[in-house]
From TrEMBL:
Annotated CDD domains: LuxR_C_like (cd06170), REC_NarL-like (cd17535)
Protein name from the UniProt record: Response regulator transcription factor
Domain HTH luxR-type: 144-209
Listed SUPFAM superfamilies: C-terminal effector domain of the bipartite response regulators, CheY-like
Residues bearing PTM 4-aspartylphosphate: D51
Keyword rRNA processing appears in the UniProt entry: no
Length: 214
């Protein structure tokens, strides 16, 4: 786990919460997005907790740079003060895997990190839907991308359930199929949409109008 925030108290608080868990290790800290790429190359974290607003390079640009530069980038968890923030939505569109509020309780922080690391369900789906309703929609590129993907009927069904925040196991129960079958469908959806994870696929689903965010 790598912590990136220009506020030392925030980094210290996150470190204290996360290092109390036996399965989470904080391997480094940075005070600005400009330091992320060299530090990620050095310490190789599985997850980066990234502040949205930083003085030199903000979390949006740092996310774009990280995903553009590295062939096997870590998961990115955006850390923010405000939930309904256009910066958060832009960070998700840039490739972040989810977001976390700085006022979150310790248990919520740990849950968010584990969920992002596992990548089998969407973090705060209702909040993502709200952000998409306010800042997304009407995106021609997303519509064209979805049309090119030519999802099957079952893949489209899986994408809609992903957008509702269901995990692979929950989708399997809903569709009365095996979990491995769902994993195959999810992988196919991501590949066809050119999405690196569920969050990016769901953002495309909302922006294209395939799934209504309301």
């Amino acid at each position: 786990m790598l912590l990136v925030d220009d506020e030392p108290l925030v980094r210290a608080g996150l470190r204290a919460v996360l290092e109390a868990q036996p399965d989470i290790e904080v391997v480094g800290e940075a005070a600005d997005g400009a330091a992320v790429i060299p530090l990620v190359r050095q310490v190789r974290p599985d997850v980066v907790a990234m502040d949205v607003r930083m003085p030199l390079l903000d979390g949006i640009e740092a996310t774009r740079a990280l995903l553009r530069t590295m062939t096997d980038p870590p998961k990115i968890l955006v850390v923010t003060t405000f939930e309904n923030d256009e910066y958060v939505y832009e960070a998700l569109r840039a490739g972040a895997d989810g977001f976390l509020l700085k006022r979150a309780r310790p248990a919520e922080i740990v849950h968010a990190v584990r969920l992002i690391a596992e990548g089998e369900s969407l973090l705060f789906p209702a909040s993502v839907r709200q952000l998409a309703a306010e800042y997304g929609g009407g995106n021609r590129a997303a519509r064209a991308e979805l049309e090119r993907a030519q999802l099957t009927e079952r893949e489209g069904e899986v994408l809609r359930l992903m957008a509702r925040g269901l995990s692979n196991a929950e989708i399997a129960a809903r569709l009365v199929v095996g979990t491995e079958t769902v994993k195959s469908h999810v992988s196919a959806v991501l590949a066809k949409l050119g999405a690196r994870d569920r969050t990016q696929a769901v953002i495309t689903a909302y922006e294209s109008g395939f799934v209504a965010p309301g």
